[in-house]
Amino acid sequence: MMRHIFKLICLLAFVPTQAQAPTEKSLLWEISGKGLKTSYLFGTMHATCDATLSPRVTEGLDNTQQLYLELDMDDPSMQVKMMKGLNMAGGKKMSDLVTPEDYAVVDAFMKKNMGMSLKAVNTFKPFFVSSLMITKLLDCPMQSIEQELIKVATASNKEILGLETVEEQLSVFDAIPYEAQMNELVKTAKDDMVNDKKEFAALYELYQKQDLNGMLDFSKTSKNEMTAKFDTELLTNRNANWIPRIIRIAAEKPTFFGVGAAHLGGENGVISLLRKNGYTVKPVL
Known about the structure:
Blueprint: H1 2-9, E1 28-32, E2 39-44, H2 55-62, E3 66-69, H3 78-84, H4 100-114, H5 126-131, H6 145-155, E4 159-162, H7 166-175, H8 178-191, H9 194-208, H10 212-219, H11 225-229, H12 231-252, E5 255-260, H13 270-276, E6 280-283
Parallel strand pairs: 2-5, 3-4, 3-5
Antiparallel strand pairs: 1-2, 1-6
């Protein structure tokens, strides 16, 4: 069970930002200029019905020497590091964050959808528990674009690395109040994922259209407060941290970067930040 949980929580929920995005409709972007080795930036969706990579994406992988994802997914110590960061700080429990009635609702929801009691993960950060439900949002067996990228990279003996450490990524969910995370989990349980499925389907359709602007506009009407209130923690701060790393990495080797599509758009997105630093970032249409 814990191994199953680990695999699921590695797939961070797809959370859109609310800033203005580049007008071009593309998920694949070429990065060049100022001494960089020509590299590629690709927006992924962590859960999908069809993870087939387009010829343009595989060509970009072929033309680079290494693959960088958000995390180093083939790090043998990753599971241990992840498990260490699942629990809330200060010995908090989810049962302490809500009324007994709401806790019972979430517990029944978990038993119905995951076949496990909330007691088994009572000390976990609520956002991680919410992420376990990602497979339930799809009307198909879940596929992972990241795993497809890893397969292609591994087949050509490319090294697979991460833009941030497990510890850095997990710290995001300590910066967001546990109460806010738990409130969203309660909402999901009470609604039995009706709204979550509706919003996920709409975002998935926009992703398939490669419509970054559409995804951003849609986020403004989201009922998920995690999206509306904590995009700074989930996206903006991380994007800013990634920029000097992307520049350094791409200056050394032509690199294929695959990160959640939510990180691409907006004034504080990776595309805009690279352009502000004087680099050429153009869509591969």
